[in-house]
Amino acid sequence: xxxxxxxxxxxxxxxxxxxxxxxxxxxxxxxxxxxxxxxxxxxxxxxxxxxxxxxxxxxxxxxxxxxxxxxxxxxxxxxxxxxxxxxxxxxxxxxxxxxxxxxxxxxxxxxxxxxxxxxxxxxxxxxxxxxxxxxxxxxxxxxxxxxxxxxx
Length: 152
Hints:
This protein is mostly helical.
């Protein structure tokens, strides 16, 4: 297999790895953290309290893998607006993941236990980065669905 094809496949596989491992790592982290409830607390709250490093590492590595996926996607989508904008919005989401991993959110909704809810600059930055994640992934779904519809 030529090296450029192997590289492209590896870049695309990084998105599959991120998509499979992030929910597993965060699910285990949430299930093993005292006082955390998936029904009450946001996943970002795993970035506070004891064990916050697990969330931070998962989000930074996940963001890097998603960024690599965006590069791979750009290599396979060669023409059209979707070939430009699809990878861009996925890269925006990747940056959001990395920022969320590096900048913790605020304690809230009773987690971590015993911590009062507060609002800090770091928490606001984290929320803004979350907007990049959700906005980028949502935009990618619409952009790439349009491309797939036109390829059918």
